[in-house]
Amino acid sequence: MHCLFLSNISFFYTRIHTEYDRPISASSKKDATNSQKEEGRIVSRGLDKITSAFMIRRLQKDTLKLFLPPRSETLLFCRPSAEQCRLYKELTTGSISDSLSTLTKLRKLCSHPDLLNGPSVGDIGNQDASSCTHAGKLDILEGLLSAIRSENPTDKVIVVSNFTSALTVIEGYILKRKGWTSVRLDGTTEQSTRQTLVDSFNRSSADNGFVFLLSSKAGGCGLNLIGGKFISVNNGCVYTQLKAHVLPY
Question: pTM for the whole thing?
Fold first, then answer.
């Protein structure tokens, strides 16, 4: 019977539909009788026995356990800078006419004060080290990247943010100033070049692509960033964190 199924797809579909699909569907209905439910269980076990001969089933937990080392996660609470505290009080003091707009500004402020004014790409390359001290998260992120680069020079990092402006700040205030190479993928990246960027990052050394800057809104159907060992999620609504292994995003 198995050989007949494999050599005749049309017959296999008809057999599945008439002998298996109908009773299984009937047993799943709210008004199904006890006899229909029991028949559905029996038919389902029979179908599993047939399909197990030529279908491979892999559970995510088993696959991860076999092929990936355990993932460790660290949650860092970053103290805001004095400038961030001052601007926070200004934004939240008095009556708030537009709550949604204010909330968005506060989320940007959590990443860096300059996000409130929208930093331009032309200006960010001329920043000094004090630009990082204006934001608690950026200061911590620079320290983490510096430690990884010095202690594990072959490791690569993925930095994720909801705001492309935050990626621009990280790129200019940290990466360009420190001379660290990076790859960037955000909403402006052409669909045809995205996989090329991913492949380039996965295959290149840390000297040619230390950081992958990724917009969390530009993931599409998923990115298999196996080249990164650490991922830093830098969002206005969560704290910077490092995960010891990067799974498909």
Answer: 0.65
Do residues 230 and 157 make contact, with C-beta atoms less than 8 angstroms apart? Answer: yes
For 138-159, b/e burial (b = at least 16 CB within 10 A) is bbbbbebbeebbeeeeeebbbb
Domain extent, residue 147, equals 71-243
Whether 53 and 86 share a structural domain: no
Query: Is residue 51 in a domain?
Result: yes
CATH number at residue 79: 3.40.50.300
Of the candidates 158, 164, 170, the one whose C-alpha atom is nearest the C-alpha of residue 224 is 158
Among residues 28, 57, 86, the one where a domain terminates is 57
Distance, C-alpha 108 to centroid of its chain:
19
Confirm if 187 and 218 have CB atoms less than 8 A apart.
Answer: yes
Tell whether 94 and 181 lie within a shared domain. Answer: yes
pLDDT in tens, 119-151: 554 455 455 555 666 888 888 999 999 999 999
Q: What's the CA gap between 142 and 178, in Å, rounded?
A: 9
